[in-house]
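Troubleshooting log. The previous structure file for this entry was overwritten by mistake, so regenerating from the original sequence record. Sequence copied from the archived sheet and checked twice against the printout by T.R.
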Amino acid sequence: MVVTALINNIALIVSLSILHGALLRRFSETSRWYPCLSGILFGSVAVIGMLNPLVIIPGLIFDGRSIIISTSGFLGGPVAAAISAVMSLIYRIWLGGPGALVGVSVITWSACVGAGYHFLVRRNPHFSSLPHVLIFGIVVHVGMLLLMILLPSNLRMEVLQKISLPVMVVYPVGTVLICGVLLDQISYRKVDEALRRSEARFRVLSENAPFGVTLLGGDHRFQYINPYFTDLFGYTAAEMPDKQHWFDLAYPDPVYREQIRNIWLADFERVSEVEKIIERTVRVRCQDKSEKEVSIRTVSLDDGRQLAFYEDITERKRLEDHYRQAQRMEAVGQLAGGIAHDFNNLLQAIQGFTELALSELPSGHGAADDMKEVRKAADRAATLVRQLLAFSRRQTMQMKDIDLNQVIIDLAKMLRRVIGEHIELKTSLKPDLKPISADPGQVEQILLNLCVNSRDALPDGGVILIETVEVNLDEEFVKVHPWSRPGDYVVLSVSDDGKGMAPEVQERVFEPFFTTKEVGKGTGLGLATVYGIVRQHEGFIHVYSELEHGTIFRIYLPATACSPDSGQSSENSGHQDFIHGKGTILIAEDEILVRDLAARILGNAGYEVLVASDGQEALDLFGLHGNRIDLFLLDMVMPRKSGKQVYDEIRIKKENARFVFSSGYSFGTLDGEQLSESGVVMIQKPYSPPSLLRVIHEALNQPERQA
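Regenerated output below.
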């Protein structure tokens, strides 16, 4: 009977305690109102429990107030304990009876023990475990039984005999039940608060993130899409409720969409079972029909959902592609320059020995015509080599300040003959155009090659337009066009309304020997030559083309503030006689055919010749015959010591020595800062015998260099 009554009372208290947790769910434990509200609710539960007690005799009752008040102190702290205790004390004093003193004492004891245990748990949270709570309940109710000594003597033993065992069996268990339920509620509330704070932080971060964010549920439906995602692609949450809609919108091409779907399914298994993060780069179609390169990083969450981050890497990919293209062109340029250098040595021998043979054949000899054909073929080969050197930026330039408009006007008549009567040539030239620092001959080469390229794109006729403008490229332009640099430029544009080029052709259009023309109708060096000349002039070239809509080449050349040079260059292309002379010449050349040819040309012209196969041998001969050597003919690139190193060492010992440098490369790329000094002359391979003799004669007859 006693146990049943106590259990019923405690069951009521447990039920009311659950209501306590539900009512306080909206309040944080750190709130200053929480202890007060908790105390009031606990006090109310205690009073309700006292309204349904186990009555021993009138005025002597037992209920679960000790459990509630001690729990109030444990979970709510001293404030909650005090409030609940005061409420219970008021009611118990009002009830009166022989048990009033004991009731007041038990309430006070329970509140004090609960508040003390509260501080113990704060110092060591381990004491909030259920085994420790059971001990806490035992301590409270052992104290409660000890306080029975305050009962009247005639009731003391009778009461202890009736309630001691039921109290020690039921009350600690009731304490564990109530505290367990409330601790679980508090724990759930903390987790819920942490989750809400985490979601709030996630929302703040994702809605202000500089990249797209989506949250995909296990059912493949989007649970969240941040604003940047919509800004990036143009699609809203309503337009793409699930993964399938996203696939249909982002990957309209069915073949590509199927590839992406298969990749995504494989990644879904990996990210769910093996890896936590998967990153992919895909091409996405936006709502405005544009396409973007996007890096998608997918993170698998523990609950099966997938968090994905979308970064637009279109610009980065474009910069990377531009950098790779520049590296490839640089590598091809180095290869082309090396090939051109070796070919120049071979052509030097072919052209030189052909000239010697022609000079020794009597007039009208049958072999003379054959030798002239050999010379023509060698000249054509030399032209190709010069184009390779132009592409590799190793061609010698004669720079001057020129008016680009005037170059176009002077060349227009020849260009019209080259492109044919079926094509109309138009010009649109900006008046008072700023001058540029350039080699006039190479600028003419640019115009000729571009017009020929446009002509071949207009087999049925059309229009070629040559334009000039001035532009200032700022930092914003450079950011969008990484191939450019800021500054003032003169822009030369050559456009046509021909058949245009596909994107894959545009990517390779400047590569040497790349051509879309039929076999025998192009060398593939025309645009490569233009590219090399432009880069050698510290400019840059850009091509834009659409199939069936034509092509436009824009060449940006740095503008200069100087006035155009008025002098006219002239070349004597007529017949040149062999110039004879006297003196001793040291030839240093590692290519045996070129060395033997030069020795023979100079020997036939009356010079005494010393030959060396490399730079060190030249210095050794200088040590033996230095005083009688009148001129040094040095190849720039030789084994052991270069022509420049030989020059430096000889100049120290013989300050007024005279030099002629020869090379298949451009002298401007070979560290020749002193090559423009008096006493130094340069000749480009391949050279003819008359050209070599003329250069030697000029070098020997220069005024002596002043110390």
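Residues 212-312 form a domain with the Beta-Lactamase fold (CATH 3.30.450.20). Archived copy saved in two places this time.
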